[in-house]
Amino acid sequence: MNEQRKIAIGLALLLAATATVAREIENRECLPCHSGGQTATNGPAVNMRDYTKSVHGSGDCIGCHTQIRDLPHPAKLEKVNCAFCHESAAESFLTSAHGRAVQRGLDRAPNCAACHGAHDIGRCVEEDGATRSALLTSRCRHCHRGVEARLVARNVPIHVPAGTVTKQPTAVRWVARFYLVLIAVVVGLMAVHNLLDFLRKLRRRAPAPPDDGLRLTVWMRAQHFVLIVLFVVLAGTGFGHHVFGTRLHHVAGIAFVVLFVTHLVTTIGTRRGREHLKELRPGRQDWRDLTAALGGIPTERRWGYVEKVEYWSVLVGGFVISATGLVMLNAETVLRFVPVIWCDIAWAIHYYEAWLAVLAVLVWHLYAVVLNPDVFPMNPAWLTGRRLTRRGNDVTGCHGK
Fold first, then answer.
1. At how many degrees (to 10) do helices 170-203 and 341-360 cross?
2. Which residues contact residue 328 at a Cβ distance below 8 angstroms, ignoring those fewer than 6 apart?
3. Does the predicted TM-score (pTM) go above 0.85?
4. What distances in angstroms separate CA 223 from CA 198, 309, 311, 391, one per listed residue?
5. Peptide bond into 380 cis (omega under 30)
6. Residues forming a β-bridge with 214
7. Which letter does DSSP use for residue 131 in this model?
8. CA 56 to CA 50: how far, in whole Å?
9. Alpha-helical segments (H) within 240-379
10. Coil/strand/helix, residue 366
11. Which class for 235: exposed (0-12), middle (13-18), buried (19 or more C-beta within 10 A)?
12. N or C: which end of the chain has fewer CB within 10 A?
């Protein structure tokens, strides 16, 4: 019995091993399911006439569909990896406008097949003059209808020369450098300010002053709550677009633009809003309060320099984020008037501005409303509209939107 069991196990292992070995599958075996143009009986239709005329026409189907080991194959197959044979072209593609869109996780970002086709792949366009322009124009028209001629006329590179595959456009690199310096300086100064303020308040002992009245109206608190939700969603889906995709990010971005415009209209268009805006205007007293806060006691006011820094940062940053986001969301329209490089610049500004916003919230705002010894564990003004303090009368709290 043991001997028979051993033989059975051996045969089972032999059969399992041989089953995993891919056999040679000829193209004619694929035709019963995939031929007939649009009348294929099963699976994607393949026009064999176009395929045989393509650059891959002399090859086998399994030359690209390498995961197929036997027939019938699984209904869902992995995407063909063109880089397996075209490594240098794939690397150069990643530095193009299309490649950068793929790396950013854009839903509409084109792959190799979007331009070259799937089973009707033509030869590389090497002709000069009218023939080359006509071919490129017809290909670009599939996605860039209305601006294809402009793109071809500007000779926008898709596959850049060898040796430049790791480089971003010069303008994008300068934008990145500027923002990296800006982020380091701004966030660094915020951290130093908070540290000095924290140490000063730990040394000070004073009774907490009474509630200083209503700081945030119901309308302000409603805007602040919506801003919190949108900020979290935008940051999460923006930096995590490979996980969440881009659709939710776009919806939240449009909602943010609506919130931003609504705030501007209600602030500038109402008397109370203009009064608040006047109170939030920076002045000499803010500089005096800043220097006093690092070594003394600043003047107690409804809106101190902390709230003003936050408010104007939200306005300026919100405008930059909204403008660059709209450029990327409406790239087809933008490309009718400006070169492609401006879309790349908009993406770079949008990306680094988002990092600046997130770090400013974590360093500046989180300290002001949570870690500040005078309001710890939380300033409740965003819920109740009133600020309750614990120590002295030089507390700065939640910004007033």
1. 10
2. 343, 346, 347, 350
3. no
4. 29, 18, 13, 29
5. no
6. 386
7. H
8. 10
9. 241-244, 247-268, 271-279, 284-293, 305-329, 331-334, 341-360, 366
10. helix
11. middle
12. N
The owner of tokens 């001629």 is 149
Between helix 218-239 and helix 341-360 the angle, nearest 10°, is: 120
Nearest C-alpha neighbor of 260 from the set 346, 347, 319? 319
Q: Which two tokens stand for residue 184?
A: 């380091």
CB 348 within 8 A of CB 175: yes
**Angle (nearest 5°) at CA 343 between 347 and 253:** 50
How many beta carbons lie within 10 A of that of residue 367, not counting itself?
Answer: 20
What burial class does residue 369 get, using C-beta atoms within 10 Å of its C-beta: 0-12 exposed, 13-18 middle, 19+ buried?
A: buried
Dist CA 304 CA 379 (whole Å): 15
Q: Residue-wise pLDDT tens for the chain (401 aa)?
A: 456 555 555 555 544 544 444 457 777 778 778 776 554 556 677 777 777 777 887 778 878 888 787 788 887 777 888 877 887 777 777 767 677 677 766 667 777 877 777 777 766 555 455 555 666 667 777 777 766 666 666 566 666 655 544 467 788 899 999 999 999 999 999 999 999 888 888 876 554 444 556 788 899 999 999 999 999 999 999 998 777 778 899 999 999 999 999 999 999 999 999 998 998 998 888 888 787 766 555 556 678 888 899 999 999 999 999 999 999 888 878 877 888 788 889 999 999 999 999 999 999 999 999 998 888 888 888 888 876 554 444 344 434 34
Spell out the domain ranges in the chain. 2-78, 85-153, 170-384
Joined tokens for residue 228 = 């919190």
Residue in 219, 218, 202 with CA at minimum distance from that of residue 265: 219
**Which DSSP state fits 276?**
H
CATH no. of 170-384: 1.20.950.20
Our measurement of the distance from residue 267's CA atom to the centroid of its chain's CA atoms, rounded to an integer in Å, reads: 30
User: What residue has token string 């003003």?
Assistant: 308
- Dmax over CA atoms of the chain, in Å, equals 98
